[in-house]
Amino acid sequence: MKQLLLFLTWCIASTAFAQKGVYNAIVAADGSGDYTTVQAAIDAVPDDNLSQYLIYIKAGTYNEHVYIPLNKSRLSIIGEGADKVFISDNKKSGGPGAIPVDKAATVVVHANDITFQGISFVNSHGVEAQAGPQALALYAKGDRIAFDHCAMLSYQDTYRTSEADNGRNYVSNSLIMGGVDFIYGSGNAWFEQCTIKINRKSGGWIVAPKHRPTTRWGYVFNHCTLTADGNPKETTIWLGRPWHHQPQTVFLHTRSEITIPAEGWFSHMAGLPSVFAEYNTMDADGKPLDLSKRITRYYRIDEKKDTIWGTAKNILTEKEASQYTVFSVMGEDDHWDPVRIFLPAKQPIGYVKVQGQRLPVNRHGCFTREGL
């Protein structure tokens, strides 16, 4: 499992960075920045700004609900590290007194073109109770939203993806923790080299998508690791279940330290998947798992209590798997390339010293280093 990128220590005063124009705003809980809350920094962003607006968050726990409206697009929100910056709340979207996800999720993103790096999104109810009901850490509703070296932490419904049929979320080198339907929603989402951590011993589900027929790709997990605390083999979880419509999810080159039931996927919910499939799933030692018993038939019960059956592809061929690339899934008509957001800058806008090293900051505000 890759270690989370550490953005450890600012070696020059934050005011110096502000004067040099590296970041538009600095958030610090101790009062040493421009704002003491993340929401205050977002509120100060000019409406409908035309250029990328960079916000840096210093180490600390920010107990607040953060909402990024549609007119605050083109933001880069960069934290000092996912092990140091925690945006945390404890609201629930299920059970008695449930609150709609727009108001209950710890961080809600309606805007497009938003970049996050080095931040943990936390719903403390889910983390502490390790039980339901729904308690979202993140709702990334918009399009072209990218995360790198972040963490999304709860138990049920941790992370809800884009609401648009082909809205795009890109998540790389990040930790996502939960036990029940904890990656769910719509849109196209690419998960690159992420750690999926299970905090329910048995009986849970990783994904619960609701993709409509017009969604082109759905969820793609590439080179991700499924794990759990203790002895991961003692944890059992289904890969997913079909929440609504015609969900699509593929797991490519997955390393499963936990136990996946032989059937792989749960056979029913309120939808009928079109693709719930895998390619090259491996165990903790890198040996291929037996996928011969993965199910292909699913059912749902309609409003008349009739049973409706459907079939879904369960195993991808090498040729089929090769069609899933970050550029095809994320590109769409505007050729969005989220990988470039986190690449080292050829012409950095500034430098910061981290652990004694002078690191370039690219135009998205991201700390970058060759070889990451």
Explained architecture:
The chain is mainly β. The protein is 9% helix and 34% strand. It has 6 helices and 31 strands. The chain has helices spanning 14-20, 38-43, 101-104, 124-129, 318-322, 326-331, and strands spanning 25-27, 53-57, 60-63, 66-68, 75-79, 85-89, 107-109, 114-117, 120-123, 138-140, 145-148, 151-153, 159-160, 168-172, 175-178, 180-185, 188-192, 195-198, 204-209, 219-222, 225-228, 237-240, 248-252, 255-256, 275-279, 282-283, 297-301, 307-311, 313-315, 350-354, 357-361. The strands form 5 sheets. The protein has an 11-stranded parallel beta sheet. Strand 27 (297-301) and strand 28 form a beta hairpin. The longest helix is centred in the first third of the chain and has 7 residues, at 14-20. It starts with 13 loop residues before the first helix and ends in an 11-residue tail after the last strand. The model is unreliable at 1-20 (pLDDT under 50).
Task: Kindly name the structural category.
Answer: mainly beta
Distance between the termini: 13 Å
Compute the number of helices.
6
Mean pLDDT: 92
Give, in spatial order, the strands making up the sheet with the most strands. Answer: 1-2-5-8-11-14-17-20-23-25-29
Helix content: under 10%
